[in-house]
């Protein structure tokens, strides 16, 4: 597979090998890219609605798919009926690369295989035909003994999956030793990354020796972005020539104990990055000072405390020994118990229970909006609202995320997650604003929030950042660029509005800029004012 090569792999001070730049990079530069990872398999839930070669996803839920024009239809491979493709071209490329080796076996399976088993089979097949690219996978850290020592349900299910993969290989006449299937499974578990859409919705998993040589930091200098099967590591900040490229394996905006717990249990290391060195004292872990009625506000959590301490997840939430710290720990535990795993494509909690959890946490008065998992809960709540067609509530949640939370959680304006949120809010504003006579629109208007202007302001923001976040030629970049062009071209919304007002094209930028400047403080005031937002929300619900 071709790649942009401005990096080299060599021993890392963090342990094992790492990836280092061979030239200095600016923020937003592509540090490293791949046309397609060596192994990429879809989650079982995505097999029926996603092209197995280019990963066009045809069943996008509300927020995640917002605005990405995926009109593709996918059809089963007529041979195995276990994978789908969006075109003859994708089918034929997949056939040449991998599918000719697996179609017959897949056809004989009653159920689609879990993607981890599928990935291990692809790995073993690649090795069995002597493909050199696969042999470098075996040089990766496997943490085999660590997995076995940790034992439990995970180890049992890893062994079961390895055995299943081995039986499929044996049925094809390839004799694979049990230990090598187990090793392949371990390599996969600690070296694979999530395959996601350009808007970060989970689709499956990928494994490629080049990606697997990226080490972790909770304060990363790069982030991985997908564009269909293409993958790029983009610089979040300037990176000097010779510096190590570091991505985050986990949600690096989570509190210290949660991050350390996840890294230790899945990757078997203690992170010692600059952020982790601050421990619970890092800004993102801070709480607000309790108010005088805090005792009363925290009552519900106090009642939960004695039940939590025996839970296996409790240790990663412990913030200290004092009564106050124990209460905050219980509150954090409670908040995380409402959060779906980042791998869940759709929220399993309904909007009402997520809303209740958010309200309880906020009501304590000590939880900053930007402290995890509150931002993640807002995001899941927005998605749950969209799934339930509760657009107004979704709008308020997304507005909070974009205006109040993201600038703190993702300080870089071009951070791809922040840009995707801005785009989702833009498309929501456009959809809701398409009926200006609705009660919700009128209520917003009375607060000075004009949705068509907000759409434009957000669109400008996304277009300004997209070259650095995703690349303007990517599917996402083309979608947002196309939306702006449609507004500006003769007959477009902006063109029509300004023509009516007799404004010439040369005057557009200044007028739009002035209007956005005028709008933004009102948007912020609306987002910040819980009472107004809640009243409108309740009234219209
Ligand atoms: C995906 S691999 C990264 C490449 C790995 N260093 C190698 O040589 O193959 C993940 C493993 O690298 C190690 N690792 C990654 N980031 C680390 C860090 N910040 N500190 C210590 N070890 C790290 C851990 O052993 C982890 O399980």
UniProtKB/TrEMBL annotation:
<dbReference type="Pfam" id="PF01753">
    <property type="entry name" value="zf-MYND"/>
</dbReference>
<dbReference type="InterPro" id="IPR046341">
    <property type="entry name" value="SET_dom_sf"/>
</dbReference>
<dbReference type="InterPro" id="IPR050869">
    <property type="entry name" value="H3K4_H4K5_MeTrfase"/>
</dbReference>
<dbReference type="InterPro" id="IPR002893">
    <property type="entry name" value="Znf_MYND"/>
</dbReference>
<dbReference type="Pfam" id="PF00856">
    <property type="entry name" value="SET"/>
</dbReference>
<keyword id="KW-0479">Metal-binding</keyword>
<dbReference type="GO" id="GO:0008270">
    <property type="term" value="F:zinc ion binding"/>
</dbReference>
<dbReference type="InterPro" id="IPR001214">
    <property type="entry name" value="SET_dom"/>
</dbReference>
<feature type="domain" description="MYND-type">
    <location>
        <begin position="51"/>
        <end position="103"/>
    </location>
</feature>
<feature type="domain" description="SET">
    <location>
        <begin position="5"/>
        <end position="250"/>
    </location>
</feature>
<protein>
    <submittedName>
        <fullName>Uncharacterized protein</fullName>
    </submittedName>
</protein>
<dbReference type="GO" id="GO:0005634">
    <property type="term" value="C:nucleus"/>
</dbReference>
<keyword id="KW-0863">Zinc-finger</keyword>
<keyword id="KW-0862">Zinc</keyword>
């Amino acid at each position: 597979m071709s790649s942009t090569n401005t990096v080299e792999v060599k021993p890392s001070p963090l342990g094992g090998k790492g990836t280092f730049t061979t030239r200095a990079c600016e923020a937003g530069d592509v540090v490293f890219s791949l046309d397609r990872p060596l192994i990429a398999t879809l989650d079982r839930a995505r097999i029926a609605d996603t092209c197995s070669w280019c990963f066009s996803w045809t069943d996008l839920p509300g927020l995640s798919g917002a605005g990405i024009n995926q009109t593709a239809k996918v059809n089963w491979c007529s041979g195995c009926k276990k994978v789908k493709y969006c075109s003859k071209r994708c089918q034929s490329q997949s056939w040449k690369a991998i599918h000719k080796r697996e179609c017959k076996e897949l056809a004989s399976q009653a159920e689609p295989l879990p993607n981890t088993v599928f990935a291990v089979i692809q790995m073993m097949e690649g090795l069995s035909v002597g493909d050199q690219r696969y042999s470098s996978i075996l040089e990766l850290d496997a943490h085999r003994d660590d997995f076995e020592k940790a034992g439990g349900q995970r180890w049992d299910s890893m062994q079961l999956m390895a055995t299943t993969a081995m039986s499929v290989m044996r049925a094809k006449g390839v004799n694979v030793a049990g230990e090598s299937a187990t090793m392949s499974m371990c390599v996969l578990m600690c070296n694979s990354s999530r395959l996601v859409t350009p808007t970060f919705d989970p689709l499956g998993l990928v494994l490629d020796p080049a990606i697997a040589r990226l080490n972790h930091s909770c304060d990363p200098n790069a982030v991985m972005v997908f564009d269909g099967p293409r993958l790029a590591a983009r610089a979040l900040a300037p990176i000097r020539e010779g510096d190590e490229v570091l991505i985050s394996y986990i949600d690096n905006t989570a509190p210290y104990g949660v991050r350390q717990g996840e890294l230790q249990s899945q990757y078997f290391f203690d992170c010692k990055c600059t952020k982790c060195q601050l421990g619970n004292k890092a800004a993102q872990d801070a709480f607000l000072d309790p108010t005088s009625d805090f005792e009363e506000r925290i009552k519900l959590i106090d009642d939960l405390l004695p039940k939590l301490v025996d839970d296996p997840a409790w240790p990663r939430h412990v913030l200290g020994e004092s009564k106050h710290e124990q209460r905050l720990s219980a509150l954090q535990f409670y908040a995380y118990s409402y959060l779906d795993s980042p791998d869940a494509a759709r929220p399993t909690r309904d909007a009402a229970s997520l809303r209740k959890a958010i309200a309880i946490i906020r009501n304590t008065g000590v939880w900053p909006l930007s402290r995890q998992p509150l931002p993640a809960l807002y995001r899941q709540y927005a998605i749950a609202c969209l799934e339930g067609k509760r657009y107004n509530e979704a709008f308020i949640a997304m507005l909070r995320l974009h205006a109040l939370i993201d600038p703190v959680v993702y300080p870089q304006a071009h951070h791809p997650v922040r840009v995707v949120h801005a785009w989702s809010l833009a498309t929501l504003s456009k959809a809701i604003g398409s009926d200006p006579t609705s009660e919700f629109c009128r209520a917003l208007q009375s607060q000075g929030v004009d949705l068509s202007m907000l759409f434009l302001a957000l669109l400008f923001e996304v277009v300004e950042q997209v070259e650095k976040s995703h690349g303007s030629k990517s599917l996402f970049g083309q979608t947002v660029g196309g939306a702006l062009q449609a507004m500006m071209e003769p007959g477009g919304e902006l063109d029509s509005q300004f023509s009516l007002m007799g404004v010439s094209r040369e005057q557009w930028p200044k007028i739009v800029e002035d209007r956005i400047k005028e709008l933004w403080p009102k948007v912020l005031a609306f987002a910040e004012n819980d009472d107004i937002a809640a009243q409108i929300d309740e009234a219209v619900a």
